[in-house]
Amino acid sequence: MAVHGGGGGCCPPMDLFRSEPMQLLQLIIPIESAHQTLAYLGDLGLIQFKDLNAEKSPFQRTYAAQIKRCAEMARKLRFFRDQMLKAGLSPSAKSVSRADIDMDDLEVPLGELEAELIEINANGEKLLRSYNELVEYKLVLQKAGEFFHSAQNSATAQQRAFGSQQTGDESLDTPLLLEQETSTDPSKQVKLGFLAGVVPRGKSMAFERILFRATRGNVFLNQAVLEDPVIDPVSGEKVEKNVFLVFYSGERAKNKIIKICEAFGANRYSFPEDLGNQAQMVNEVSERLSELKTTIDAGLLHRGNLLQTIGEQYEQWNLLVRREKSIYHTLNMLSIDVTKKCLVAEGWSPVFATKQIQEALQRATFDSNSQVGAIFQILHTKESPPTYFQTNKFTSAFQTIVDAYGVAKYQEANPGVFTIVTFPFLFAVMFGDWGHGICLLLGTLYFILREKKLSSQKLGDITEMTFGGRYVILMMALFSIYTGLIYNEFFSVPFELFGRSAYVCRDLSCRDATTAGLIKVGDTYPLGVDPVWHGTRSELPFLNSLKMKMSILLGVAQMNLGIILSYFNAKFFRNSVNVWFQFLPQMIFLNSLFGYLSLLIIVKWCTGSKADLYHVMIYMFLSPTDDLGENELFAGQKTVQLVLLLLALVAVPWMLIPKPFLLKKQHKDRHQGQSYMPLQSTEDTLQSEATHDSHGHGHEEFEFSEVFVHQLIHTIEFVLGAVSNTASYLRLWALSLAHSELSTVFYEKVLLLSWGYNNIIILIVGGIIFIFATVGVLLVMETLSAFLHALRLHWVEFQNKFYEGDGYNFLPFSFAFGDEEE
């Protein structure tokens, strides 16, 4: 069952049925060559290092200072990346050699570049703030100047009118009034002050009310709307604003107005009273704006050039920093020898990688000019090794489906091998329609043909998940086309692809009759369901019977496969107890009942018998000694049923009772020294340890009651599960029926109905509804539903027969993995 590809050398044999044989290594590395050694081992990516300093905090470890340096450099690189993204630049993707620059040589330039960029940004922000303030100032000068100009014109006109009135209406009182006015003390005359600025338009009404209340109405406020939004100097965002001009009397009123302006975020600007000075100020502000614009543009150009220079080197720097950080992080997992001259490393690696690791150690010793080479040795251990399957882009998605349930125990049978075929096949049994299968195939071919381009892009969550499972969907589509041809359904429409139907109608009322209205005139339809069944009254009874029996056959076959794999596990781990007291009784129990039912189904199909299988199975338990009568399918059936029933009853105590006593005896023998054997090889040691540890006893105290209760639960679970799991496979029939009926409804009640109106608009609308219903319901929701049901059948009904799934993944120290993580 193994999948082999290549052998020996750098291309080890690929075996998906069992995980790769692993070994525990110990490396003693001189400190002067430790960094170079880890760099080469990271490139190799075939050692999972153990943390030998787990009791130490990150700050107490040897290379904490180097990791801190790397983290600081990574922070600077993230800052550069953010700045490039804001500027609309992207780092150069061209590949560069990483040997051009060293870590120590990179730290100083990064600091200088960061300081320069921060200074440029700070100066740019100051200049931009000044520019925005000047823009607001110019608008204030223009709007307030218009107000003063109109007020002066109005005052001049009023003064002229008042002067002409005085000369024409002189009276005896006039000299006295003029004398009183001229004799008034100049120090007692009221002087008005004013403040000008801009306030956000959304706050202008509240600003006006607060000013009125705070000064008890002793202000005069004038506002002018700015037509275009202006950039706020503080926030840097575009805001709609109004220019305001406040006239007040007294210092107390002025202080109140200033505080209110600050509270409302209103920017105040100085404003000259003289109209001549106003025009001069507008010209000066315009000149300063022009100068600032030129300076800002030059600064942006310089910043863009600097970021472009950084972008050309960014990927190289980022790769170097991440490599160095991962190297020092791994070096911190190594323990220092008492002489302070060597580092001791322990880790798991595949057996096939021994030669490659030794070559990497020799190369590191030579390149670092170390006088002493690293020492490589294999340790014998009782620890359970990690699980490592070598997958490719096709098998990785199927292995992920299995690992989502639980990672395989070291070297136990891997259901991923069978999942490659059984998962898409069971999906297709529920989804069988070759029209829908072609739609799925076209969709997944888009991802497969563009996989190089799409793999380098950042996709959305759902798109990325679909892209990752593109080969699973490909297999699902191909199997759906096959089962669709078996069901003879193309968007629920049957076709005579493989010849003419074997039946014809006896009369015109045949379509509304049962199968009695059909006469067989030709050979049996060569592949799949005869198209004449579709549309007849007997279509549902016929297809229901066919699909229900087929579901039971498929279910019993897959459950038997699971039990057979438990036998291969037991043989591999040399566990004879599981062979004789788990595999055998389980096979006998399952096949005495449901294997027998499957046999009856096949016999009934072959003989054309009308026996009631429900009646046969029920009375096999209720009245096993009664005659079967017309339900007898073959001679001696009654005797066969009695024997099978007896075997099923015997299999239950066979599973339950002997195994706990045998395990107790094995435990006792092992502690008396009868089971000790010399170690022959690492692989044998690991396998024998896995056998002993699989029951969770090891050298602990043997609790017979716990083992017996565990076996009792396991036996009850299997006996009840044999019934419930077989019934669970009927979901294949139910979902296949639902998919077929939904497809028929959309075809007949939408497409054909709209076609019957002979109206092009109704036909177009009906076609659009049919397309959306097919895509939305049948190609999305039904696909997801069938996928989840196929997943459940594999996880629960299939894998619980043999799969422990209590292992842990092999996660080697590798720069290839590190490049995917930030």
TrEMBL record:
Its main location: membrane. Coiled coil: none annotated. GO terms for molecular function: ATPase binding; proton-transporting ATPase activity, rotational mechanism. It is a multi-pass membrane protein. InterPro entries: V-ATPase_116kDa_su, V-type_ATPase_116kDa_su_euka. It comes from the Eukaryota. GO terms for cellular component: vacuolar proton-transporting V-type ATPase, V0 domain. Essential component of the vacuolar proton pump (V-ATPase), a multimeric enzyme that catalyzes the translocation of protons across the membranes. Required for assembly and activity of the V-ATPase. This is V-type proton ATPase subunit a. It comes from Actinidia chinensis var. chinensis (Chinese soft-hair kiwi). The lineage of its organism: Eukaryota, Viridiplantae, Streptophyta, Embryophyta, Tracheophyta.
